[in-house]
Specification:
Chain lengths: 549, 212
Amino acid sequence: MKKLTQKRYFKVKRKTILLLLILFVAYAGKAQVKESFRLYTDRDLYVSGETLLLKLFAPSTEKSGIVNVDLINHDGKLITGITKQIVDLQADGFIYLPDSLGSGCYLLRVATRTSTILTIKELYISNRFNGLPESNSDLRPSGILPLNEAADQTLQIEGIASRYKAREKGKAAVHLPNELLNQIEGNLLVSVAEVTPEYSTSEFTLNAAPKTGQIIEAEGIILEGIVSDKRTSLPFKGAIVNLSIPDSIPGFQYFITGDDGRFYFQIKNYYGKIPVVIQCYSNDKTQLLKMVLIDPENLKKVMPNFETKAFPSGLRKNIERSTDAVTFRKIFNQQDITTVPSPLTKNNGYPFYGVPSKTVDPKLFFDLPDFTEISRELLPGVKFRAYNRIPTLQVFNLPQQNYFNDTPLLLIDGIPIRDLNLIRDMGSKDIDKIEVCQTERFYGDLRFPGVVALYTSKADYTRLPESDNLIKLNLDVFQPQAILNSTSASQSSDPDLRPVLIWNPATKPQQTIALDFQTSDIKGNFKLMIRGKTKDGSTFYKEQKFEVQ
Amino acid sequence: MPKNWDTEKIRGTRHLPYPSATGFPYLNDRFSPGEIEFLSGIKVGNIGLRYSSYRDEIIYYNTAIGTQIEIDKMSLKGFDFTDADGNKRIFRRQHYDGYFSNERYFEVLGDGEISLLAYRKVALQICPTYTDDSGKLKNMSYQNDYSFYFYAKDKGYSQVKITKSSLLSKFDKLTQKTIKKLLRRNGVQISDETSFIHAWNLIKENGIKLIF
């Protein structure tokens, strides 16, 4: 009897352990399935000098409003990158692959400032002038777990022939069932592009450890830095840090540092490459300050392993053909894409320093050699004097009917200047426009006892002296949208060597999506691809291949 | 990191004292807690606001620098504050296209397809001479010059006085009868702003359309 009870006890215990084990495995499995960015490119294989087109889907939990897509080499060195706004958890863009890129495997990395999982897509880029390496092998990522996905069986593609002739018109229709249509989140990616069957690359994820306390880039790029006392190298509290973006209506932000000496700026609503000037100063004019920007790049160390792998046969021939096509496109100046004009930045219609009481164009008057003369002759209410080589500037306060005791805010092309000597030699020829505010202006907690804003003819900011408390940047902000150039080359005698026939990264989901395309002069394999994301966070795709003969 | 470090900054000029005279150039006696809305739609709340009826400007008290600042009118969409009686006063910046057309802050007394707006203007006007606290002889005083309007986006402004007859005059004769009946049944006698607003709300609730 005792033996039987003991046997039963062990049986129950065994069952309990087994159940706990199953529960643990199930939980652990669930915990591992963490949503990540999904990244898709028009092709896997490129020739330097081409344009790479990309589309990405963000995880539904993504809080960041912007995403960085970087092209890095196998050493983790950043080659180029773009910043895109995430709209409806999606983004699309393009990357110009520099002509100078050496042949090799490159990685396209998607991450935000706070990403703990990096999505990486492997690419191969062949140099346009050197082609593939003589060794017939190259480094490729190893030991990675590719992100696989199954083709959607309910999605139907109709009308695609198995073979087309060069420059033949094609029509296709993609049918989306209602069940799928109701589940789709955002837009679809529809593309028709050349494929290299013998060489395909994979998309995989790597874990990253972002720095603690990173600020989420909700609306724009965050610039972060630290101001320190130049003498003690300790963080400096109470420094006023200005960020200026020279423009016809200049951008301006300021930050007053706390105990940690840190400052932050968020740049939003700007597109392309913009000049940015950051300056810091203390109210104590004798205080020497040093300012550095902090690189948020914490991803450099996160790289997969690489091993040398031989190229499949037939790849070299394919690459040579693609290289010729790219060279021809360059010769005939055929652009892959056209950028769409960016939405205009709204600055509430007037500069941060207020509506000027007076605007003067010195070129409308007789030529004046320096700013002392300009202030005397053209700017009543602005007193610029240089007695004993010490310049002073004062503005007449119109409401109070007296001159301000303090020096006004002086701007050159929207950049605050504290050294009055910089404008002393500026004559009529150097200045396009002068704006003056003859009131006491406030911008947040900053007080301006009058404003004198000079807009120079050259607008090259070379007058700004290099110093430890000034940083000049040419910042890549949001990449503008672009559309693929559809060619009218069929009518012309120029060769049509487009490897991508359709690239619609923002196709509205509907029951039937009609597609019209025309094949190019490139002969080979092409693929029609539809990709999308459902509300549960999973992605789906459907593809159909065809040949151009 | 300071709170709201990346929000839009308030722009304006220093508020200078107005000429001393009897009457009151402001709508609210003291700075009241309120919120402003920039043109971009960004809102900045929890600031001390005071509406200058004399200049039609909104003044805020910047606690960091201890200064009263007149906020640039062209940077705002509107503002609201809670007055000493605990009432929320909502103001909207709108272009006034009547006589002396300009941008004005209107108090929204009733919103909808047709809004009931108040322009809380105070004017410094000549008055019978008097001696002020310091013994100076003066002949100017701040006097209320409020005006009220019905406003529809497509039709513009229609001025109205805070009287029953003025309200009724905005309707045709047949509707006037219905309104009179409605007001009588609800015991509404238009004698001041509050009763006028109440009457207007009743008219709206009963689906009577104002045509102007």
